[in-house]
Design goal:
Blueprint lengths: L17 H16 L8 H25 L8 H10 L11 E8 L6 E3 L4 E4 L2 E5 L3 E3 L5 E8 L16 E2 L7 E5 L12 H10 L10 H9 L5 E10 L5 E12 L6 H11 L10 E5 L2 E14 L4 H19 L9 H8 L4 E8 L9 E17 L2
Parallel strand pairs: 10-11, 12-14
Antiparallel strand pairs: 1-6, 1-8, 2-5, 3-4, 3-7, 4-6, 9-10, 12-13
Helix pairs in contact: 1-2, 3-4
Length: 377
Amino acid sequence: MDLSNLKPEDVKVVDDDLAVILAQTIAKYESDSGKTLQPAHIERLIINTYAYREALTRQQVNEAYRQQHVRFATGLMLDLCGDDVNTPRLEASAARCTLRFTGQALRSEVDIPTGTQVAVGEIVFATIEPGRLTAARPRVDLQAVCLTSGPAGNGWSVGQINTLQGVFAADVSAVNITVPSGGAGTESDAAYRARIMLAPESYSVAGPVGAYEYWARAVSPAICAVHVGHALDEKNEEIGGTVAVTVLTKTGMPSEELLAQVKTALSAERKRPLCDTVVVRAPTEVKYTLVAELVLLTGTNALDAKTAAEQAWAAYEAAKQEQLGSDIVQLDIQTALKVAGVYDVKLTSPASRVLKPYEWAKCTSVRITTRVEQEDG
């Protein structure tokens, strides 16, 4: 039996069907009293009330039982399941970027201590390593982390983070040279559940695929998908002893800072076989455009149908954005766009394509139009 397809309502320890409970209760009362009940009898009204309350109690019993299992647990109960396998939920993570400090015509050395702050509005980034500016080396690049956890630090353009805090000479400036990313909220139940189910793999060093995936996901809640496989050479042949770990984040391509974090985590001697070489990389981006024409049923409002199709596409694309190796399938796209009032979907782009497990499909533009002529269906 494939437990991955098991539905919560299929897992019960007691029957919680209201109709069954009501029938059993009526039959028991009639057997004990020798009286046949009619729907209008006062006893039926009382039995209906208590049968309903018993059904609710049984449903709560079944739900309490489901909450003992990782596949169905939520919230605190899922945290307790994670505690059983030494896998705590990941707290919110902060965005990271690289800050460039520059000195102009320096007359003396300038130390940039760990914790030096550079801001953009109310968002502040602090360096996590020290640096030094000299006349011979007037520029230094340092890693920095946002002091506000969560996605607030993500996405600032190169050059936007430029307000240097603290006492520095007027000829010292700082600016971000990478777009900060990696900030995410507390790990969701779905992502946390996936890590808990991978936890037994972590009992070994990261030789098995599952172990590499477990330790990579444990780095940050911003990571939504991981693929582990052999690194390939120029002839597309496997490189022995070299493990390629592909990482995708909730906001898309991972930053160099996050990739470095994952590589550091996977390179620990107790987390990988001694002779493994680990390569951590971003996915191979497969860009495509959506060009579709909606053929409408007669009487359908074109604007309403187009708006519904655009919303359906946004939901479809959002789900695929957190998946690696998700194929581009024309039939799936047409199905998503065939909303109420749409007779047919004429798809010009994209063409169907099978992706490799380390590739990531990204839609770069959307053009959905409606045909003037309508069909009766």
